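Look at one such:
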Amino acid sequence: MAVFSRGFGARRRESDPDLPPGQYLTEDFPVLSAGPTPRIDTDEWSFTVVEDGRGLARWSWDEFLSLPIEDITTDIHCVTRWSKLGTSWRGVSIDTVLEAVESEATHVMAHSYGGYTTNIPLEDLVDGKAWVAFEFDGEPLDPEHGGPARLLVPHLYFWKSAKWVRGLDLMDGDAPGFWEQNGYNMHGDPWTEERYW
């Protein structure tokens, strides 16, 4: 069951080059979830990188926060047609997460607490394109927005920025995650409106 919040009645700025086709500007931060919001205590949170069932790397919350942290300012675009410009985040780059991992993987399946998954080509996560974010607008990330940590892949539609993220499964091919199995596009580029299959 999808859960919606306020913020879906936004306005379109036709002349704004920062808005992808079909998107509307919002000053709010709408929430859309496919089920109940998981509440994960940071004492129980961990983040893992696996491949073929083998654990390649694992961090507790404190270990993760000891990694290099970046400040990110970026626009975000939801497949439900809202966009929010100039958002501020803090997190750890996926480049940092994968630094010690050797793999021939081409794709990743992101896994979340609560069972949600989403697939992403590895090339869309590296070279400064994605983070595991734990702060939004100078505050710890609220559970409704994916706290304590979510994936942040701002150049793709926001469903690819998996909330409540707990790890990455490296894969040598593509496979659909939760929303992709339910008709969303396998890639999700907002600039070419890759919304659905």
Notes: Confidence is low (pLDDT under 50) at residues 1-13. The first helix runs from residue 61 to 65. The helical segments are 61-65, 94-97, 178-181. The longest strand covers residues 82-93.
